[in-house]
Design goal:
The complex is a heterotrimer. Chain A is α+β, with helices and mostly antiparallel strands. Chain A has one domain (about 50-190). Chain A has three helices and five strands, in the order H-E-E-E-E-E-H-H. In chain A, strands 1-2-3-4-5 form a five-stranded antiparallel β-sheet. In chain A, strand 2 and strand 3 form a beta hairpin. The longest helix of chain A has about 45 residues, at about 1-50. By secondary structure, chain C is mostly helical. Chain C has one domain (about 5-195). The two termini of chain C are about 20 Å apart. The chains are: A alpha+beta, B mainly alpha, C mainly alpha. The interface between B and C is large, with 44 and 43 residues.
Chain lengths: ~190, ~220, ~200
C-alpha cells in the first residue's frame, strides 16, 4: 500500500512538472494563437464587405448572430451586414462568411472552414487562373437570396462537379442565413 | 440534438467515415490482429467497450475541467472562495492531449481490473487485447474528434464513440475474413505479409468510398 | 555499435515504417500533399528527439512499475509544445494536420523508441537514435506525399507540374491511394533489402 502511494506520488510529481512547463509555453504562444484566429476572422469580414471599416456584433432573441458594418466608426451609416452561414457538407460543417449590402444583395462570400473530400468538395475554395477569388465563391457576388439554388435544383449557382452535397450545403446555408437576417430586420423594422 | 442527427452520426461513423478505412485511425491493431477471425472479434469487442467509455469520460473531463466556461468545476471551486474569479482564468484546454491520454491509460487499467474481478470468462476473451488498446490511436482520435473538432454534445459523443467502435470491428472482421483466404493465395514474395494486406485494405477503402453517396 | 550506426539504422535497415511497421496512421492520413508530409515529419522528429533525450536522462529516476505512464507524460508534454507552437506560428499547417498532431502521442514509433531504446541507452546514443528514426519516418512521409500529390493532384508542393489537359488520378489523394502507395513502397523496399543481402 505504501509502495503504491509512493508510486502515485512520483507519477504526480512528473505530471505536475509537465503541466507547469506547458503552462509556461502556453503563456508564450497563447497571444500568438489568438492573434492568428482573430486575424483570420477580421480579414474575412473585411474581404466580404470592403466598404465597411467598423463592425458591431448583434444577436437576435432567437440567438442568430450578425454584424452591422459601418462606413466609419463615428457615423451611423450602415453600409451592410455580415452573417455566418453553417451548412452540413459531406464530411464537415462548412462555415461561410457572407457580406451583404443594405438591400440584402450579396457583396461577396468567403468559405472560412471546410474539411470536405480532397479533390472534390475542397474545390469550393479552388482558385482558377489568375482570379483572386475562388470561382465557386465568385458566383455568389451580386446575387439575391431567391436566386441561390444550385443548377440541379433550378437555380443559378453552378455546382462543383462530383461534389453536389458540398455545393448544396454552401448555397442553401447562405440563402437560409440571409433569409433569417432579412426576417429579423424587416420584422423589427430597424435597418 | 434530435434523433435524426444521432442516426446520421452513427451511420457516418460506421460506413461513410469509417475510422480505419477513411480516417486512418487504429491501423496497427487493424493489421496486427486481423490474421484470425476469433482474435479480431475479441479485439473489436474490447475496442467498442473502451471507446464508448472513453468518449463519455473524456467529454466530461473536457467540458467540466478544461474549457473556460461557467460550469468548469475548477472555476466553481475557486469561485466559492473568491467571487471575483472569471471562467477565462481557468482555460486549460491546452492540457487536453496530456489529460486525455492519461485518462485513457488509467481507464484501460481500471477496465482490466474490473472485468477480471466481475467476469472471468469475459476477461479471458478480452484480457490480452486490453493492454494493447492504450496505444490504439483510434481511442484518442475519437476523443479528439468528439471534443476539439466536432464539439459534440454528451449523447452525440457517446454515440459517436460506440459507432466508431462498431466501424472498427466491421473493418477488422471483413479484413480477417479476407486474410484467412489470402494465406492460401500465391503472392509474389516481396509483397507477402504487410504489403498485400495494405492492398486489400486499399480495395476495401475503395469499396467504402461507395457509401459516400449515402445521405439522409 | 558505432555512433554513426545509431543514426543511419533508422533510415533503411530498421526504418520505422518500412521494416518495423510502426507509425502507420499518420503515414497514410496526412500524406495527401508533400507539405503535410514534411510538417508531420518535422513535428514527429522533434518529439522523438526531445522525448528520447529526456527519457534517457531520467531513466534511473523512474520506478519500473510506472515507467510507461511517465514516458507517456513526457511524450504528451512535447506533443503539446509542438501543437501550441504550430497553432501560433503555422496556422495553415496546423489546420491541415488536424487531430494527427495530438495523435503523435500514440504514434507507436515514439513510445517504442522510448521504451525499447532510450530507457536502456545513454544520452548521446538516444539522441542519435531519435534523430535517425525521425528522419527515416520523415523520408517515407515525403516520398508518399510526393507520389500522391503528383499523381493525385498534378502538383508538387502546390506548383502545377503538367499542362491544363492533365487529368489527375483523384484516387491517389483519397484514402485508397494512401493504402496502395504504402503497399507498393513496402514491397519495393522488401525487394531492395533482398537484393542487398
Amino acid at each position: 500500500m505504501k509502495y503504491i502511494l509512493k508510486l502515485g506520488l512520483i507519477l504526480m510529481v512528473y505530471t505536475v512538472v509537465a503541466g507547469l512547463s506547458l503552462g509556461f509555453i502556453n503563456n508564450i504562444t497563447r497571444s500568438k494563437i489568438l492573434e492568428q484566429e482573430g486575424n483570420a476572422g477580421e480579414k474575412a469580414q473585411r474581404e466580404v464587405l470592403p466598404e465597411a471599416s467598423a463592425f458591431v456584433d448583434f444577436t437576435t432573441n432567437g440567438g442568430f448572430e450578425y454584424k452591422k458594418g459601418y462606413a466609419d466608426k463615428d457615423t451611423a451609416d450602415i453600409v451592410g451586414y455580415v452573417v455566418n452561414a453553417y451548412g452540413n457538407g459531406y464530411s464537415s460543417t462548412i462555415r461561410t462568411i457572407v457580406g451583404l449590402d443594405t438591400t440584402f444583395t450579396i457583396e461577396a462570400i468567403e468559405i472560412v472552414y471546410q474539411e470536405e473530400t480532397p479533390g472534390l468538395g475542397t474545390k469550393c475554395v479552388e482558385i482558377r487562373g489568375d482570379s483572386p477569388e475562388p470561382w465557386f465563391e465568385a458566383q455568389f457576388d451580386g446575387k439575391k437570396p431567391d436566386e441561390l439554388l444550385v443548377d440541379k435544383d433550378g437555380g443559378t449557382i453552378d455546382a462543383i462537379s462530383g461534389a453536389t452535397i458540398t455545393s448544396r450545403a454552401v448555397t442553401n446555408s447562405v440563402r437560409e442565413a440571409i433569409e433569417e437576417l432579412k426576417k429579423h430586420l424587416t420584422k423589427g423594422g430597424s435597418q | 440534438m434530435d434523433f435524426g442527427n444521432i442516426m446520421l452520426i452513427a451511420v457516418s461513423a460506421i460506413l461513410v467515415n469509417n475510422i480505419v478505412l477513411a480516417k486512418f485511425l487504429g491501423l496497427c491493431p487493424f493489421l496486427g490482429v486481423s490474421k484470425k477471425l476469433d482474435a479480431s472479434l475479441g479485439m473489436g469487442m474490447a475496442v467498442i467497450f473502451v471507446m464508448t467509455l472513453a468518449s463519455a469520460v473524456t467529454w466530461i473531463i473536457y467540458e467540466y475541467f478544461l474549457l473556460p466556461i461557467p460550469k468548469n468545476f475548477i472555476f466553481r471551486f475557486f469561485h466559492l472562495f473568491d467571487p471575483s474569479v472569471t471562467p477565462s482564468m481557468f482555460d486549460l484546454a491546452y492540457l487536453e492531449t496530456i489529460a486525455f491520454i492519461l485518462v485513457i491509460a488509467s481507464l484501460v487499467q481500471l477496465v482490466e481490473m474490473v472485468v477480471q474481478r466481475i467476469s472471468p470468462p469475459l476477461y479471458e476473451a478480452l484480457g490480452i487485447y486490453l493492454p494493447l488498446i492504450t496505444t490504439n490511436c483510434a481511442i484518442l482520435g475519437v476523443a479528439e474528434l468528439n471534443t476539439m473538432t466536432n464539439h459534440y454534445s454528451f449523447i452525440a459523443s457517446v454515440v459517436h464513440g460506440f459507432s466508431a467502435g462498431i466501424g472498427f470491428t466491421l473493418a477488422l472482421i471483413l479484413m480477417s475474413g479476407i486474410r484467412e483466404k489470402l494465406e492460401l493465395a500465391d503472392v509474389p514474395p516481396s509483397l507477402k505479409g504487410l504489403p498485400i494486406a495494405f492492398m486489400v485494405a486499399g480495395l476495401m477503402s475503395l469499396a467504402f468510398l461507395g457509401f459516400s453517396g449515402l445521405k439522409f | 555499435m558505432k555512433l554513426g550506426g545509431e543514426f543511419t539504422k533508422g533510415l533503411l535497415k530498421e526504418n520505422p515504417v518500412l521494416v518495423l511497421a510502426l507509425g502507420l496512421c499518420p503515414t497514410l492520413a496526412v500524406t495527401n500533399t508533400m507539405v503535410n508530409g514534411i510538417g508531420m515529419g518535422i513535428a514527429a522528429t522533434f518529439v522523438l528527439v526531445c522525448s528520447n533525450l529526456v527519457i534517457s536522462l531520467i531513466k534511473n529516476l523512474v520506478p519500473n512499475r510506472i515507467r510507461i505512464p511517465v514516458f507517456i507524460t513526457v511524450i504528451a508534454t512535447f506533443v503539446t509544445v509542438v501543437k501550441l507552437v504550430m497553432a501560433g506560428y503555422f496556422p495553415g499547417l496546423s489546420k491541415a494536420l488536424g487531430i494527427f498532431i495530438p495523435l503523435i502521442v500514440v504514434n507507436c514509433i515514439i513510445l517504442g523508441r522510448a521504451e525499447g531504446f532510450a530507457s536502456k541507452n545513454n544520452v548521446l546514443r538516444s539522441l542519435l537514435d531519435g534523430l535517425g528514426m525521425g528522419v527515416g519516418f520523415m523520408l517515407i512521409l515525403i516520398i508518399i506525399g510526393a507520389v500522391r500529390e503528383i499523381l493525385g493532384a498534378g502538383t508538387i508542393l502546390g506548383h502545377p507540374l503538367f499542362g491544363e489537359s492533365f487529368k489527375p488520378a483523384l484516387l491517389m489523394i483519397l484514402p485508397p491511394g494512401g493504402f496502395f502507395s504504402i503497399a507498393i513502397l513496402i514491397g519495393l523496399s522488401n525487394l531492395l533489402q533482398k537484393r542487398l543481402e
